Amino acid sequence: GAVVSQHPSWVICKSGTSVKIECRSLDFQATTMFWYRQFPKQSLMLMATSNEGSKATYEQGVEKDKFLINHASLTLSTLTVTSAHPEDSSFYICSARDWRGSSYNSPLHFGNGTRLTVT
Amino acid sequence: GNSVTQMEGPVTLSEEAFLTINCTYTATGYPSLFWYVQYPGEGLQLLLKATKADDKGSNKGFEATYRKETTSFHLEKGSVQVSDSAVYFCALSDFPGYNQGGKLIFGQGTELSVKP
After folding, report:
1. Are B113 and B12 in contact (CB under 8 A)?
2. Which DSSP symbol is given to A16?
3. What's the gap in Å between the CA of A85 and the closest CA on chain B?
4. CB A3 within 8 A of CB A55
5. How far apart are the first and last CA of chain A?
6. Cα gap B44→B20, rounded to integer Å
7. Which of A58, A95, B13, B105 is positioned for an S-S bond with A108, CB 3.0–4.6 A?
8. Distances from the Cα of A77 to the Cα of A5, B4, B110, angstroms
9. Which residues of A61-80 are buried (b: 16+ CB within 10 A; e: fewer)?
């Protein structure tokens, strides 16, 4: 089945540094990927929709200059947390839809998430 | 706007007990409905789905029926196991524009703990 790989699975960084998280679709092309943020014991909050070859669409309240998204190819999207601070510590999850032979109602495939800790 | 509401957790059950996790939704149009499961420290995995009214999704002993009249998609399992302990998320697929690819709107999640 379709697989989405997210890397790294966990990262610890110092306050003020930047961190890049990669999301790859391994056996399908994803023109659209989604980035979610999850706080402990809470639901997933959609941060942005990443579109291959164009600018990402950010949800209301998400700082686009802080969370830089690049969808460089049909199989890779990256999220860069710039000038990270302790309040950015969270679980970040990406997802992508496999459009092959299916409708818009086909489910999303999720990466295993990245645990970011900013000290 | 579209939204999903789940029963609050945590839910604690003994092994072999019957499970129900309630989920109701608000949506325009005809969304698809999903249940995802998240095991500790992992991302989400699709558990089951239903794409139209009266559809029943099922997988691994879990099932849920798309009830348009009550706008519900309750998750059930007849006999839970310790290995079912996880967080369960109900979600609906928002009606997509071409560039959106179809966003998922999640409920708040329900933590299930099954004791031996």
Report:
1. yes
2. T
3. 22
4. no
5. 37
6. 20
7. A95
8. 11, 27, 29
9. ebeeeebbbebeeebbbbbe
Which chain A residues contact residue B36 at CB under 8 A?
110
- A105 contacts in chain B (CB < 8 Å): 32, 51, 93, 102
Mutation pick from A6, A97, A105 vs chain B, by most beta carbons of B within 10 Å, is A105
Instruction: Kindly determine whether residue B109 and residue A43, on different chains, have CB atoms separated by under 8 Å.
Output: yes
Interatomic CA distance for residues B98 and A31, integer angstroms: 10
Q: Which chain A residue is nearest to residue B49, measuring alpha carbons? A: A107
Distance CA A26, CA A33 (A): 13
Are residues B108 and A42 in contact, defined by beta-carbon separation less than 8 angstroms? Answer: yes
Closest-CA distance, B76 to chain A, in angstroms, reads 20
B22 alpha carbon, distance to own chain's centre: 8
* pLDDT over 80 (residue B94): no
Q: Could you tell me how many CB contacts below 8 A there are between chain A and chain B?
A: 63
- Residue B43 or residue A50, greater confidence: A50
Give the CB-side neighbour count of residue A36, counting CA atoms within 13 A. Answer: 23
A53's tokens: 């070859």
The pLDDT of residue B60 is 95
**Phi, psi dihedrals of residue B84, rounded to the nearest 5°:** -85, -5
Nearest CA in chain B to A93: B43
A42/B101 Cβ within 8 A: no
- Res. B98: pLDDT tops 50: no
Which residue has 């000038």 as its token pair? A83
